[in-house]
Specification:
The complex is a heterodimer of chains A (224) and B (763).
Chain A lengths: L4 E2 L2 H10 L4 H14 L3 H10 L8 H16 L2 H11 L2 H4 L2 H17 L3 H18 L1 H11 L12 H4 L4 H18 L7 H19 E2 L2 E3 L4 E3 L2
Parallel strand pairs in A: 1-2
Antiparallel strand pairs in A: 3-4
Chain B lengths: L18 H10 L9 H6 L1 H4 L13 H9 L8 H6 L23 H5 L2 H5 L5 H18 L27 E2 L7 H7 L6 H10 L32 E2 L4 E6 L3 E4 L4 E4 L11 E5 L9 E8 L8 E6 L15 E5 L4 E3 L6 E2 L9 E7 L4 E4 L3 E5 L8 E6 L5 E5 L9 H16 L6 H4 L9 H5 L12 H17 L3 H19 L6 H32 L2 H11 L1 H43 L5 H16 L5 H18 L5 H25 L5 H12 L11 H7 L1 H18 L7 H18 L10 H6 L1
Parallel strand pairs in B: 1-2
Antiparallel strand pairs in B: 3-6, 4-5, 5-16, 6-15, 7-12, 7-16, 8-9, 8-15, 9-10, 10-11, 12-13, 13-14
The chains are: A mainly alpha (224), B alpha+beta (763).
């Protein structure tokens, strides 16, 4: 291995200066984030203030967020109705997603202590699906195990986590991604890609050269 | 991937290098331009038709595409690419006014003459004419840059290279391949270009003893200053080298043909080889060239491939340990690690062999049979190379001068896409992202802390970082309403999940963020108002707001910003008078159709007088009065229709002069050259009747562009006064990553070519 090249801060900053990127390029990245992450009003304001064409109908952001909120509230039925209002094909063509929603519904029954309804629902709706795939079945078993414990804190973590807010968020995230896909909108935020690219590029360059270290959040450099 | 590579004749599977490249190539193999047997060659042209339907490359038919893509090369008129190469000597810099690029006149004629001679080669008539047509279409755009080209027909960068993120560095300008290039491109100096870059960046790099000290003749003048990557030109091979070849091989026809004259070689490894004039820049990502067999042999004693600078010219590519080749006589693959392995069909007269190298996976490939030679190009430079053994054998090469027979664009596109998909699965190293730069940790240590969680796409931690970056970006640019809506929404969201979750560290952060936005909102608004006021020419209003909200900005740098604003105010006043005067003139011109008496002449005289008197900018304040007086004179007797305007004009002019005098009094004794120069330039504009149409430096000083620059400067000064960075962290991040990728490309890391931020994230 040849010795590493050292690039000084002044030199590096000069190169940064020469990189061609415009405000409107960055504005579009921000808009992408606002849309995908569902910041409807911010996206609207931004479209005005930055004079940007909205990439999607703002209403679709709204309905996506309504669905997300319904799931975070625990109102799975409402979420399913809204998804179907938006585009019935989303759930029709994605049995795994539909199962997850049904599972979430079962979880919500159990959370509310509506045991009878929970059992009924599990038998009517989930059991037949559990037969379709072993994966569904084990998820169903895991969920039903919640009934075995009087209170959530007593349950093993793998089971108790079903009652956590993270579980709702996870389901909501999957529904969000499916909807974005149906709108043929990218589902991965481009700015996340940027962070990945940073990690990729810095690692590779670190093998070849010493170069100034960027503090990502403050945007300042320090020589190594 | 367990099969033994190279043993089976028809299923090429890469051993390990990259399954994606293997897959892609395999999918492409079924569309060779010439089917393996020689029958196809006999059938002639139909077999060579390119596979148009598969084309997924840039839009449209090839000729159009090419023309279009050419504009991607340095003269492309969009700001981005122009300035990418802006520091290349002899080109227009983006900072210069747009009317300047005179450099590029006059060259086209020289190039038209490249067409006809080529098409005289009978065996190549068809193809060459294609190339010629294409060339003539593209000449007007391309030629001007190749100021240096002379001995070789210049051609645009082949379209497939536009997939490289470093395309702007890749140039086909053929240097005169006469004497100087011998020096520049001799083996010992082969990597001198890159070395000159490296060694100028750091002093501790001399891995190959002789190199670092070889100064490049063309570069010696600015060798002292570390050249920016933008200065770098990565030259593409464009022809066979006149120097770096065996003496039995002769170079013909613009350097594209080689023919063997001499006693045929008998040994297995003996042969005469040549290499191209430039080494292949790994920044290509994938490099590709095609060789057509022109000799009469059905099984050519020719090897086609790649050679390192050290390879000897009396060996076939692949027979020397520093080279790789595909040999026509028996279809074997010759390489340093495994000699004479059967690889593909034999080839001979009329066949076209496509030969490529993928620097992102370090594997070579032939259109005949897919990938081969893993780990090629990992260590050191490579040239396209061909070796010939028998008298009378000849080849013709397409380095990109003509349309390729193989759909290399599609191939590259696939590979590019696959590589990007891989890059984008890199896990995010959150410890790295949150690192304080003051901590002296090295990058390699940090990367071992990687949270190997690449299943989440936008997880909370990434969101948290991005939210901070976005908020600071919005605040920086004064998107107050967006910032408000953004942080409010974040708070609502957190609050709603708080109901269930009590781990509220993120809530605290958000509260802080919102508070920040709250107090900043007022600032943002004032800042936006100031910027807008300057953009509209309302300098007084900008100054007033500054005085109330950011008085320290006006005081900073010994009132430099304040001075600049006042100069601008003067410019605005002068512009106003110029505007009025134009109106006035219009009125007078209408008046002249009626009998108006002697006033008109006096009017003309007056304006002439003004222009001349004011011309001397060193003495402006005192020179102003005569102009004013003469103006008053003719106003007094002027036509009644223009009276209102005239009066207004008079007072406006008066106001401007008074303002100018005050300015002069205030800054006359300021010792700063910067101040004096701006002062002088600013008063200079008075010399023009209409400074806006004056062109050149004057127009630059008064135009909207100057307002934008000033508003930007003021915005930055305000941000600085608040202890905030002059550019949003998000923008710095983007620039940093881009610089990393460019640097990797310059270092010869091929995979960087397919990390194209612009294409992947902005389109």
């Amino acid at each position: 291995m040849p010795p590493k090249v050292t690039i000084r801060k002044e030199e590096w900053e000069k190169r940064l200066h020469d990189v061609q990127v415009t405000k409107s390029d960055l504005n579009r990245l921000i808009m992408d984030y606002l849309v995908i992450e569902g910041y409807k009003s911010a996206a609207e304001e931004f479209s005005q203030e930055a004079n940007l064409e909205p990439p999607v109908d703002f209403e679709s952001i709204e309905s996506r967020m309504d669905i997300r909120e319904a799931l975070q509230r625990g109102d799975v039925e409402d979420a399913i109705t809204r998804v179907n209002d938006l585009n019935p094909e989303i759930l029709d063509t994605n049995p795994a997603l539909y199962f997850k929603l049904q599972q979430q519904k079962l979880i919500e029954y159990i959370r509310q202590g509506r045991i009878e309804e929970a059992l009924q629902f599990a038998q009517d709706e989930l059991a037949p699906r559990g037969e379709e795939s072993p994966e569904f079945l084990s998820e169903l078993e895991r969920t039903m195990a919640l009934l075995a414990f009087e209170s959530a804190p007593g349950a093993p973590p793998a089971i108790a986590e079903l009652l956590s807010p993270a579980q709702r968020l996870k389901t909501a995230g999957e529904v969000n991604a499916a909807i974005l896909e149906s709108l043929s909108q990218g589902k991965e935020v481009k700015l996340v890609g940027l962070l990945k690219l940073l990690c990729w590029g810095e690692t590779l360059l670190g093998e070849k050269a010493e170069y100034p270290k960027l503090n990502v959040l403050s945007g300042t450099f320090v020589d190594k | 991937m367990t099969s033994r590579p190279g043993r089976s004749s028809s299923i090429p599977i890469p051993r390990s290098a990259s399954s994606t490249s293997g897959r892609n190539i395999e999918s492409l193999i079924p569309i060779p331009f010439v089917s393996p047997g020689r029958q196809a060659a006999m059938q002639g042209t139909s077999g060579r038709q390119p596979t148009e339907p598969r084309r997924v490359g840039p839009e449209g038919p090839r000729s159009v595409t090419t023309t279009h893509n050419i504009s991607v090369s340095p003269v492309r008129s969009t700001a981005r690419s122009v300035s990418l190469v802006s520091s290349v000597p002899g080109r227009t810099s983006s900072s210069r006014p747009p009317f300047e690029p005179r450099v590029i006149r006059g060259a086209p004629a020289e190039h038209i003459e490249h067409g006809p001679p080529q098409s005289t080669s009978p065996s190549q008539a068809r193809r060459v004419s294609m190339g010629t047509v294409r060339a003539s279409v593209t000449q007007p755009t391309i030629v001007p840059q190749h100021v240096v080209s002379s001995s070789t027909a210049a051609f645009p960068r082949p379209a497939y290279l536009n997939y490289s993120s470093l395309r702007h560095f890749l140039q086909t300008d053929a240097q005169p391949s006469t004497l100087p290039s011998r020096v520049a491109e001799s083996p010992s100096a082969a990597s001198s270009r890159a070395q000159s870059y490296l060694s100028s960046v750091s002093s501790d790099n001399d891995d190959e003893s002789s190199l670092a000290s070889v100064p490049l003749p063309t570069r010696s003048s600015n060798h002292v200053a570390a050249p920016m990557p933008q200065d770098q030109v990565l030259r593409l091979p464009t022809r066979w080298s006149e120097q770096d070849r065996h003496h039995n091989l002769n170079v013909f026809s613009d350097g594209r043909e080689l023919s063997f004259q001499g006693p045929s070689c008998s040994g297995d490894k003996e042969g005469s080889s040549a290499r191209a004039n430039h080494k292949i820049p790994p920044a290509c990502g994938i490099y590709y060239y095609e060789v057509e067999i022109m000799g009469k042999e059905q099984k050519a004693h020719i090897s086609i491939g790649f050679a390192a600078p050290k390879a000897k010219f009396n060996r076939l590519p692949g027979a020397d340990p520093h080279s790789w080749g595909y040999y026509g006589e028996d279809g074997s693959a010759l390489s340093p690690d495994r000699n004479n392995v059967h690889f593909g069909p034999p080839f001979g007269t009329g066949d076209i062999i496509g030969c490529g190298i993928d620097f992102s996976a370090n594997v070579a490939f032939y259109t005949r049979n897919g990938p081969v030679f893993e780990n090629i190009g990992r260590h050191g430079d490579l040239y396209p190379s061909v070796g010939v053994q028998h008298n009378g054998e000849a080849i013709r090469t397409n380095f990109g001068q003509a349309r390729f027979s193989y759909d290399i664009d599609y191939h590259v596109q696939q590979q590019c896409h696959a590589t990007w998909s891989k890059i984008i699965t890199t896990p995010i190293d959150y410890t790295r992202l949150r690192e304080e730069p003051s901590k002296p940790t090295s990058a390699s240590n940090a990367s071992s802390n990687t949270t190997g969680d690449n299943t989440t796409d936008t997880n909370d931690e990434a969101k948290d970082i991005l939210n901070q970056l976005i908020l600071s970006y919005l605040v920086h640019h004064g998107y107050a309403q967006t910032a408000k809506a953004f942080s409010k929404r974040q708070k609502d969201r957190t609050a709603s999940s708080e109901l269930l979750d009590n781990s509220s560290s993120s809530k605290v952060k958000l509260d802080a963020a919102e508070a920040k936005v709250g107090t900043m909102e007022d600032d943002i608004e004032s800042r936006t108002n100031i910027v807008n006021a300057i953009l509209e020419g309302q300098i007084d209003s900008a100054i007033d707001t500054l005085q109330v909200k950011f008085p320290e900005v006006l005081e900073a740098d010994n009132h430099l910003i304040f001075f600049k604003l006042r100069c601008r105010k003067f410019v605005e006043l002068i512009l106003e008078t110029a505007e009025m005067k134009k109106k006035l003139k219009d009125i007078h011109e209408k008046e002249i159709e009626k009998p108006t008496g002697p006033d008109y002449t006096q009017n003309t005289w007056a304006s002439e007088d003004m222009d001349m008197d004011v011309d001397d900018d060193s003495a402006i304040p005192s020179e102003f009065h005569p102009v004013l007086e003469s103006g008053t004179n003719w106003n007094g007797t002027g036509p009644s229709t223009g009276l209102d305007t005239t009066t207004k004009y008079e007072s406006a002019l008066n106001e401007a002069i008074v303002y100018g005098q005050t300015l002069s009094n205030d800054y006359q004794s300021d010792p700063r050259p910067e101040v004096q120069q701006l002062f002088k330039k600013t008063f200079g504009i008075v010399a023009w009747e209409d400074p806006l149409t004056a062109g050149g430096a004057t127009a630059e000083l008064v135009g909207q562009g100057a307002r934008v620059t000033l508003s930007h400067e003021v915005n930055q000064a305000i941000l600085r006064s608040q202890g905030r960075p002059a550019q949003p962290a998000l923008e710095t991040l983007w620039r940093h990553i881009s610089a990393c990728i460019t640097q990797l490309g310059i270092f010869g890391v091929g995979v960087a070519a397919f990390a194209d931020m612009e294409r992947e994230l902005l389109q």
